[in-house]
Structures are given as structure tokens and as C-alpha cells.
Specification:
- This protein has 327 residues and is of the alpha/beta class.
- 33% of the residues lie in helices and 13% in strands.
- The chain contains 11 helices and 9 strands.
- α5 packs parallel to α7.
- InterPro entries: GP_PDE_dom (IPR030395), PLC-like_Pdiesterase_TIM-brl (IPR017946).
- It comes from Phyllobacterium phragmitis.
- This is Glycerophosphodiester phosphodiesterase family protein.
- It holds the Pfam family GDPD.
């Protein structure tokens, strides 16, 4: 009996040694490069996040404006890239004239002088709207952007033409699988090298449809991310990357990341070898997707030498802090 226990102890020790050696970043190397910065919504008006619900009109609770930019506009995107963004996240909706409008909200009533569901309008109709109409920082006493946003809602074609060499993360704002098929059609018409600079995320159904038609485009949805991370936590210690993690944008909350096998360098290397790109998010609080890495304190939580992606709502701050070497 003692002999059996000795053998079991040896096996446990050997397994422990294997797991450690196979997952420690002390024995892994990464290219010495700066993190990839993803600007969520580009440079946008910040708003009070207390008590937010899915239907909260954030334009009605902006903080006193510190700049002139409105999210999902070409000037905002240009300013984001100039500030240090490598990728800008944009939101899209199909229009009745077979285009995609770049705009955040499901309906027009909050931000614009229009009404109704965004996707039941033509691009020509949407171009006539003032997308700065509803922004107020003082409960409706003043509207600092009213009249300044007429014609600023771009189409996806306009965005891609304005930034032919830039990377974008395209957010599909519905759960309609047909929307994924429509977006796939648009992306199929792009040159391969242009398509390689685009990623797509959003509802499970449209993302799955697009992924089926364009498997080379990196995608992510809530369910696909859950499938990836659960499987990786279960057996990633072996060094095997689950098929669910291949060719996707892997979004990892900064407080979850240290629990992933091989974090940071081995994990990044494994995901890169699987055709995927990792982006750190802000802390996950159990209620859904986390926010971005949006404060200097959160920047300091990033491991020294980290060379993956960082998702932020504060691109200017993130670029400044990283450049200053405060991690």
C-alpha cells in the first residue's frame, strides 16, 4: 500500500512540475513591442455611468464637454488614431438602401433630431439628421452640440474609404443573423488585405453567420467568448488551445487574466499561434462584459512588458500613461 502511495505522490509531483513548466512565463518570450490600443467608440463624450440601464439615454447625462468630438464620426476616429489608437471600435446598423450606417443607438430618439429605429431608415435619410441634437450636460438647459452634427453620421463605406489602412472592430448591434450575412457580403467585396484589418463582434447569431461565411475574419460574441475561456481554463494547462479560441478577438477582464494558464506571455503566444488576438478589458464585476481599461490605476495593473491588446474608453489617457511607462 505504501508503495502505491509513493507512486501516486511521484505522479502528482511530476504532473505539478509539468503544469508549472508548461505554463510559466519565465520560460516564454514575446516580441518587445508596445501594446495594441483599441479605442472603444473612438474619442467620445464621457457620461455619468451610475445606474446605467440598457435603455438609458447617455447623451442626456454627459459630463461637461472637454472636447468637440462625437462618437462614431470620422473626425472622432481621426482624432483617436492621432492620439495613439491602433484600432477603433465602431457600431453599425443596416439601412433600407443596403448600406450600413455607423451609429451607436438602436433608435434615433436619444442623440438625434430623428425618431424611430435606426435600421428602418435609408442612409440618405440618416445623413439629414443632427447627431448632436440630444447631448446635454445640465439636464436639458443647454445643448452644446445641437446643430453641429448635421450630416456627420457616416456610412461604413465612407469610414473604410477615409481610413484605407487602419484597423477597425465592427460592432453588430442586433441579434439578427441576416445582418451578419449582409455585413459578410460587404466585407467579401473588400480586398483581402483590407479585410484582414477588420474584426467583428456583437450578437451571437449575426456573428456566427458572418464567421461561417468569412472564417478568416476574427470575431467574438458573448457565447463564443464564454466557450473559449471555459474550455481554456479546463484544459489549457496542457498547452492545447481549444478550437473555440481560434481566429477570434479574445476579450479578457484584467482581474480574470491572472487565472488563465500561461498568463501573460505563454497565453498570448498560444492565442497568437491560433490566429487570435487578446485584448485586456477593465475589471469584471459579474454583471456582464466589463468596461475598458480606463484609469491610470488600471493601466498599472497590466504586467510589465505586456504586448497584447488593451481595450479602453480613454484612448488619450491610455496612450499617455503607457508612453510614460507607469505600468
Amino acid at each position: 500500500m505504501r508503495k502505491i502511495w509513493r507512486h501516486l505522490l511521484v505522479l502528482v509531483l511530476l504532473l505539478g512540475a509539468f503544469v508549472y513548466l508548461n505554463n510559466t512565463s519565465l520560460l516564454a518570450s514575446r516580441p518587445d513591442k508596445a501594446p495594441t490600443l483599441l479605442a472603444h467608440r473612438g474619442i467620445a463624450q464621457r457620461f455619468d455611468t451610475a445606474g446605467l440601464q440598457n435603455d438609458t439615454c447617455t447623451a442626456e447625462r454627459i459630463l461637461p464637454p472637454a472636447h468637440e468630438f462625437l462618437e462614431n464620426t470620422i473626425p472622432s476616429m481621426r482624432a483617436s488614431f492621432d492620439a495613439g489608437a491602433d484600432i477603433v471600435e465602431i457600431d453599425v446598423h443596416p439601412t433600407t438602401d443596403e448600406q450600413f450606417a455607423v451609429f451607436h443607438d438602436w433608435t434615433l430618439d436619444c442623440r438625434t433630431d430623428g425618431t424611430g429605429v435606426t435600421r428602418v431608415h435609408s442612409m440618405a435619410e440618416l445623413k439629414k439628421l443632427d447627431i448632436g441634437h440630444g447631448y446635454t450636460a445640465d439636464g436639458g438647459k443647454t445643448f452644446p452640440f445641437r446643430g453641429k452634427g448635421i450630416g456627420l453620421m457616416p456610412s461604413l463605406d465612407e469610414v473604410l474609404a477615409a481610413f484605407p489602412d487602419r484597423r477597425f472592430l465592427i460592432n453588430v448591434k442586433s441579434r439578427d443573423p441576416e445582418e451578419g450575412a449582409k455585413l459578410a457580403t460587404v466585407l467579401k467585396n473588400l480586398p483581402e488585405q483590407r479585410r484582414a484589418k477588420l474584426m467583428v463582434y456583437g450578437g451571437d447569431e449575426p456573428v456566427a453567420t458572418l464567421r461561417n461565411q468569412l472564417p478568416e475574419v476574427r470575431t467574438v460574441s458573448r457565447e463564443s467568448l464564454k466557450a473559449c475561456l471555459i474550455r481554456y481554463i479546463a484544459y489549457g494547462w496542457t498547452g492545447i488551445v481549444p478550437a473555440a479560441c481560434h481566429n477570434m478577438a479574445v476579450l479578457v477582464p484584467i482581474n480574470v487574466a491572472p487565472w488563465l494558464w500561461g498568463w501573460p506571455d505563454r497565453f498570448l503566444n498560444r492565442m497568437e499561434a491560433a490566429g487570435s488576438e487578446v485584448f485586456l478589458l477593465g475589471p469584471y464585476d459579474g454583471g456582464g462584459f466589463s468596461t475598458g481599461v480606463d484609469t491610470p490605476d488600471e493601466i498599472r495593473r497590466i504586467p510589465a512588458g505586456y504586448s497584447g491588446g488593451i481595450w479602453t474608453n480613454e484612448i488619450e489617457m491610455a496612450a499617455r500613461e503607457l508612453k510614460a511607462g507607469t505600468r
